[in-house]
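REVIEWER CHECKLIST
Item 1: Sequence provided? yes
Item 2: Single chain? yes
Item 3: Sequence as submitted:
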Amino acid sequence: MDFKEEKKSVEKAMKKMVNQVSAEETDLSRQEVADYDLEAKKALVVSAYQDIKERKRYAFWIFLMVLVWLISIVGIIVTCGMGLLTISDPVQLGLIGATTVNVTTFFVIVTKYLFPSNNIKP
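Item 4: Structure as written out by the authors:
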């Protein structure tokens, strides 16, 4: 559930609670509603902070994995160029092409998941 859906859900619950209040409980109920609203806002802030922290962690590991993957491919190409490893030209081209596509696709998909483009405004 994203931030907008959470906010709508909280607002809907708050409106429902306000409508269920009887006339003699209005003052107490308003304070309760304000308290619930404050707690809901605190929970959303904590959730956003946790999301940011997790995104930073996963972004680092994704970057590291892509870097190691690409360095490995460059190492294979260099060892082939030096004659230490013998791989036919079509296999080298396939390795370079497939790796480039796989790494780029993986990086883009995971990055878009971790850093969505929708601007969340509370």
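Item 5: Key structural point noted by reviewer: Residues 3-114 form one domain.
Item 6: Recommendation: ____
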